[in-house]
Amino acid sequence: MAVVRSHCFNKFARAVLSMRIQECNQNKEPFEDGYANGEEGTPAGDAAAAYTPDSKGVVKFGWIKGVLVRCMLNIWGVMLFIRLSWIVGQAGIGLSVLVIGMATVVTTITGLSTSAIATNGFVRGGGAYYLISRSLGPEFGGAIGLIFAFANAVAVAMYVVGFAETVVELLKENGTLMIDEMNDIRIIGAVTVVILLGISIAGMEWEAKAQIVLLVILILAIGDFVIGTFIPLESKKPKGFFGYNADIFMENFGPDFRQEETFFSVFAIFFPAATGILAGANISGDLADPQSAIPKGTLLAILITTLVYVGIAVSVGSCVVRDATGNVNDTIVTELANCTSAACKLNYDFSSCQPQGGSDCHYGLMNNFQVMSMVSGFAPLISAGIFSATLSSALASLVSAPKIFQALCKDSIYPGFQMFAKGYGKNNEPLRGYILTFLIALGFILIAELNVIAPIISNFFLASYALINFSVFHASLAKSPGWRPAFKYYNMWISLLGAILCCIVMFVINWWAALLTYVIVLGLYIYVTYKKPDVNWGSSTQALTYLNALQHSIRLSGVEDHVKNFRPQCLIMTGAPNSRPALLHLVHAFTKNVGLMICGHVHMGPRRQAMKELSTDLAKYQRWLIKNKMKAFYAPVHAEDLRDGGQYLMQAAGLGRMRPNTLVVGFKKNWRQGDMRDVETYINLFHDAFDVQYGVVVIRLKEGLDISHLQGQDLLSSQEKSPCAKDVIVKVDYSKKSETDTSIAFAPSSSERTPTPRKEEDEDGKTPTQPLLNKGRHFPSFCVKSFFHIVDFSFPFVIISTPKYHSKSSSSPLNMADQRLLDASSQFQKKQGKSNIDVWWLFDDGGLTLLIPYLITTKKKWKDCKIRVFIGGKINRIDHDRRAMATLLSKFRIDFSDIMVLGDINTKPKKENIAAFEEMIEPFRLHEDDKEQEVADKMKEDEPWRITDNELELYKTKTYRQIRLNELLKEHSSTANIIVMSLPVARKGAVSSALYMAWLEVLSKDLPPILLVRGNHQSVLTFYS
To answer: How many Å apart are CA 999 and CA 1002, to the nearest integer?
Structure first.
């Protein structure tokens, strides 16, 4: 035997303090004073104990090197050097600043939203994926995580091809091409990406050093341009560069769109330059303090890069004219009457370059992409800046993609990618992810044509930004107490505006790429939703679902009930839900998507032990219901006896208008062998239900309902394994009475609980949503390498085995009775064929007996079944009664296949059936006429369930009616799928429990599944619309 022990494992280097405390406290034995052995602690002390310092040797970056540098390098792309001057030429200085401003608004709002999420708790590795998944849940996070990782991988190819194209241009100018332009781009790109891969695999420290070097080169290149603007050389004037000049500034301030360009097309070209703001957040797992670093580094990078973009746009627009010939002979010797351009005023005539001039000019803002090189003081430094911008962006993307993908794989969102979750070395480097990213990038580099894929990549980034903004709006809207970001400079409505702007920009850049992005995100969202990953991150989706449910429940409580809106809302006394699956599936057939279904479970015994089991079972069995697609709630209570527990549930179960109105119980099959006090409790439940205006439904299967002795109480799903492979956990508790084979919810004792091994939180703090049982349970357990099937109930053994517990290869095969019971337990999960649902409507109980079969036939599995209605009547009025009933059903709009009027319902039953009934009740009779009066009175007082001779004679007619009805049921409904029949009700205190149970027994024995239904006389059907 092995005793399960409780442990708190500090598995990861840095953990959320509250999460660690919670994990430890979950495994502590509850004491009245809250501490074991009288030990007291302080919150600060507990937090310090729970905190684990960083592992020795792990490289962590601060906000400058980790976030600021990376974001600046990504935002300062090649756009700064080879496209910004062209944008100024097309849009003019004013609209260029507006374009930059609009892009900055989108990125700043996204930066504020990122800062809010990043400061709302500890941030682990995974960047945008981590932020979105922990805010909106695994569905959105899984969708964005995959495409964001892919976008970064392809972005590596884009930046490397940009670098290779620049190198090939230089080679072409010098006449040193290796093969041809296309193949040279492929060769140079492949060599470059191999070098970048080597830097990345060398470790984050080397990669960070390389980024610093590239940033220095980039800053020097920008400084080179700025210095060059103040040194206008005579040799550069024919090319359109004159230095700062007010006339040039005024001329270039307004737009001059050419070649079908528009404001939005120019904006679409510029915006991808601003999509590097998540470069720092993408390596969140490598930051020393991501909560502080991400907001400071990201927002400062946006500010600095925006100022530089605006400054260069204004500078180049103030120094360089739109068109220039490059010809030194275009100087003006004599004043020209029609020349009014800024160049004319500076003694240069470039009128031949104007669109109407027809000449093809190669210089000026509109014609030369290398304006910054021409303006700069040292042109090769600008080329170095272009190399630096492309390589730094490529390097950042090459690092980001594997980190995001590794975080995604660790969360098991896509089980097929699990192999990429493994990390290596002290920094947990995703080497497999690096290789995958390298192969993707290399594939796209060999294509060498990225004009088609580029818009899709930009839209992938924008989709991530949109969801980050939406995450903040959603979390604020949900009003979750857990949404407490330390960063306060955000607004939910501004974040919503940011999300909308991102979606608009997606269409502005490329409408078909935007549509494709939406389709991919939606497809991945549907896939992850369908797979239901086993994670629970406390997302805002959950919080908003709760808030909506709360608000609608409160709103519903102010609405009066109406007969048209009546729906059966069932409290089922199931005990452990998986012990009586047939009961659940049959009730689910008429409550699914219609009404409330609550599985009641009464725990009895010592309070402390029962309360522990109560909280454990609540999570465990609710999980079982969800796994088995049962739209129901599990409601356990602790009570001294079953009747008290039933009363508690009937009075307190539900919320507002969503409260049960029908009690459903299984038939007490073994009532004759059990304790008659349990029968008294069973019958009193019916009376208690009627007292609180409940309807009552009793369900009987001739094979029985309880299969707990076959499958074990804790066999929840195939995913939850027993502690050793193909093991069976057997527990014995000799101090408890055995659980009798009844369909009423007697709580299993502690010996009947199986400890499911708790899955520790993994390195990412993922909290499993599978039902968890506390460790350290105080009962013996052991594993045996075989299967047991115990059908003797003299001891409460509970057997747990793998799902194939009834396989033919078992050492102890099921007997015939158990096999039939097992088959019957799943009969309502199958599609029902073309058969009948027979309704025996013998009493007007408000219509519940008719409504339940109608609701059953609306379900897909039962749609081929037809309703047949049986009613009592007189022989000379059969046709009249049939027509009247048909008219009534038509008014109720209930389809039926046949109506049968039973004229012989009051005929005396067969003698052999009467004799069998008398033989059945003989052990329960008092026979007071054969005893002295005092002895009989004393016996009746001690055993009130006994049947007196007077009682038997008084209710002889009713007894014969039940026997006769059973005969008619066997005659007419023996082939029906199910029978729905009015439940006979005995007056409280007038009919003994034994006689009433005998009526139910004789009425329902040897029949197909039967529902005995009695409403509370509240009308549930109406003629009116």
So the answer is: 5
Whole-model pTM: value is: 0.68
CA distances from 218 to 214, 221, 962 (A): 6, 5, 96
| Residue type, position 204, single letter | M
pLDDT class of 359 with cuts at 50, 70, 90 = low
3-state secondary structure of 791: coil
pLDDT of 863 > 50? The answer is yes
Cα separation of 479 and 540, whole Å? 9
646-673 pLDDT, tens per residue?
999 999 988 888 889 899 999 988 888 8
**What is the identity of the amino acid at 213?**
V
The helix or strand, by DSSP H or E, that contains position 728, with its residue range, turns out to be strand 728-731
Task: Delimit the domains of the chain by residue range.
Answer: 63-531, 566-700, 830-1014
Q: What is the CA radius of gyration of the chain?
A: 40
DSSP symbol at 986: P
Record: fold of 566-700? Rossmann fold (3.40.50)
pLDDT at 729 over 80: no
In angstroms, the Cα distances linking 17 to 21, 24, 526 are 6, 11, 34
Chain position carrying tokens 């092995």: 2
Report the 10 Å Cβ neighbour count for 358.
8
Are 279 and 394 in contact by the 8 Å Cβ rule? The answer is no
Closest CA to 577 of 538, 529, 632, 659: 632
Confidence of residue 415 (pLDDT cuts 50, 70, 90): confident
pLDDT of residue 98: 94
CB within 8 A of 236, min separation 6: which ones? 374, 375
Dump pLDDT digits (tens) for 774-818.
Answer: 333 333 333 333 333 333 333 333 333 333 334 333 446 778 888
Q: Output the six-digit token pair for 467.
A: 């969801």
Where does the pLDDT of residue 31 fall: very low under 50, low under 70, confident under 90, or very high at 90 and above?
very low
Residue for token digits 């047991």?
788
3-state secondary structure of 297: helix
Which residues sit opposite 869 in a β-bridge?
839, 899
pLDDT value, residue 995: 92
Sequence-distant (≥ 6) Cβ neighbours of residue 31 within 8 angstroms? none
Q: Please state at what angle helix 492-509 crosses helix 263-270, rounded to 10 degrees.
A: 100
| Complete DSSP assignment for 490-508 | --HHHHHHHHHHHHHHHHH
Q: Do domains 63-531 and 830-1014 have the same CATH topology?
A: no
CA distances from 561 to 159, 658, 1018 (A): 66, 11, 11
Straight-line distance from the first to the last Cα atom of the chain, in angstroms, rounded to the nearest whole number: 66
User: Is residue 105 very low, low, confident or very high in pLDDT (cuts 50, 70, 90)?
Assistant: very high
Q: Do 632 and 597 meet the contact criterion of CB atoms below 8 Å apart?
A: yes
The DSSP letter of residue 1013 is E
Sequence-distant (≥ 6) Cβ neighbours of residue 953 within 8 angstroms: none
pLDDT digits (tens, 9 = 90+) for 370-406: 888 888 888 889 888 888 888 888 888 888 888 888 8
The CATH label, of 3.30.160, 1.10.1760, 3.40.50, 3.90.1200, for the domain at 830-1014 is 3.40.50
CATH match of 63-531 with 2.160.10.10: no
The neighbour count for residue 9, using CB atoms within 10 Å, is 10
pLDDT in tens, 492-533: 999 999 999 999 998 988 888 899 889 998 998 898 888 878
- Whether 865 and 836 have beta carbons less than 8 Å apart is answered as yes
- DSSP assigned state of 766: P
**What is the amino acid identity at position 561?**
D
Q: Report the distance separating Cα 933 and Cα 105, nearest Å.
A: 97
DSSP 681-710: HHHHHHHHHHHTT-EEEEEE-TT-S--HHH
Calculate mean pLDDT across residues 990-1001: 90
Q: What is the 3-state secondary structure (H, E, C) of 305-341?
A: HHHHHHHHHHHHHHHECCCECCCCCCECCCCCCCCCC
